[in-house]
Amino acid sequence: MTSQPSPPVSAQLLKRSAASDGRRNDQSPPAPAGVADTHVDHDHQTPGAPLLAHWQPVRSGSHTLVDQIVDRFVVCIEQNVFRQGSRLPSVRLLAQELNVSRYTIVEAYDRLVATNHITANARSGYFVQHKRQPARGIKSGEIVPTLSQDKIDVPWILNRLFSQQNNLGLKQEWLDTEIVARSIRKVARKMQPSALMYGEPFGFAPLRQTIMAQLAAHDLHVQPAGEVLLTTGVTHSVDLLIRQLVRPGDYVVVEEPCWFVVFAYLRMVGVNILTVARTPQGPDTTQLEAHCRKHKPVLFICNSTVHNPTGFTLSARAAHDVLRLAQQYDMWIVEDDTYSELSAGPPLRISTLDQCERTFLLGNYSKTLGAAMRVGFIAGPANILNEIAMLKLLSGLSTSSLNERVIHEIIHGGHYRSYIERLRQRINWARTKMLERLGDLGYVLAQPPAAGLFLWLDMSRDAEPLARQLNLHNIPATPGSLFYPDQRVSTYLRLSVSSYDHPHLWDALAAWQQG
């Protein structure tokens, strides 16, 4: 009996429409170093060959040859057409049978090794990976339980907020992804190898120069060399400043209500937290002066423009009073300027009044360009920032110069200012709509904010159950209790205006109003 030849192995892969990568056989490089370019042992080759005969990758379409080959191998492996442990054809043989370059096969095999579908053996070639029981993954949007699930705490709310697509404020359709993508492409085209190295301790110098110019436009004059330090965002900035400026047992003053992450950083250092009420005009300076006389605090942390969570902006009188007390009692000021680009007019800053002699101004770009753009800055006294730069290096080395280059390109691309204006208009429109709907349900803010992403609503009774319910429906809502250092029961609720069109929000608020 005449034996039948073994069918070609590579021509067995399933069909998928794709584009040619333009590579020919005469451009084929050798097999990758360390992996044998062995012939297939047909006695031990992948079974099921007759089922997949006559397949060839397509050289016109929307997918490359590599993509097609990888996809077909994945299908065959996952459907057990290619058995676990089976030897795969060599690079040379597969390239011949599929009429593609060896380079194409090398790249396809490399991708399959990277995704753990196949393994590479230096002497005997490529083999289908043995399946392992996968560890349970976390689905997108799934919440990792925290230690306190019966009560909303900071870890619980952060898990919720960062797991929601709407997360901390901006709707996805409000973001200009093209301005970011265009800037990334420009940075990539002119990128030098130095961009892949560690960044400078103070951050990418051209971006620091740009920040200096932006601040100068609002009468705050600092020098990029020594007086501007780049960070990964305001959270990083606050962490560095607290660790540099305060010691265990010191007194630190915060506004009440206040961004709740600040409390966690202060407690980590072991300081005594004092509070002053935040009014529509700014912090209560009478309370602040009383604290200064009694406790001699070393630091005051505040929002000047578009306060989180109330949305208020301090008055000129309050700014002068705060600075006077800081000078009189030798107190540092950390001025969180996170949301100033959303303000209704030019930002009013304490740091402008003293030109950053005892104030540290914190800014960032993630609240306007998108949360993934983790770049922030500190403007402040050069002698302190020099020490903070060393702390930054010791705690996390340098910040990402790639991100900083992209931000620099975005600002200089010519469309940043118009984008910010469009974003501000969208947020203002959403706030107006939300306030109208709230009014229809009987919720009235005594003094609605003129800017910003948040509304600070008095819900008449403990708002935590409502906050939990809304978060379970992916509506970013934070109970007022988290904005106080003692996490007291609060009737207030922080809502994002980006939720104005979420139907469950209005159903829940209507039901809450009815008791």
From TrEMBL:
This is GntR family transcriptional regulator. The lineage of its organism: Bacteria, Pseudomonadati, Pseudomonadota, Betaproteobacteria, Burkholderiales. In the C-terminal section; belongs to the class-I pyridoxal-phosphate-dependent aminotransferase family. Transmembrane segments: none annotated. Pfam families: Aminotran_1_2, GntR. It comes from Advenella kashmirensis. Residues 1-47 are annotated as: Disordered. InterPro entries: Aminotransferase_I/II_large, HTH_trans_reg/aminotransferase, PyrdxlP-dep_Trfase, PyrdxlP-dep_Trfase_major, PyrdxlP-dep_Trfase_small, Tscrpt_reg_HTH_GntR, WH-like_DNA-bd_sf, WH_DNA-bd_sf. GO terms for molecular function: DNA binding; DNA-binding transcription factor activity; pyridoxal phosphate binding.
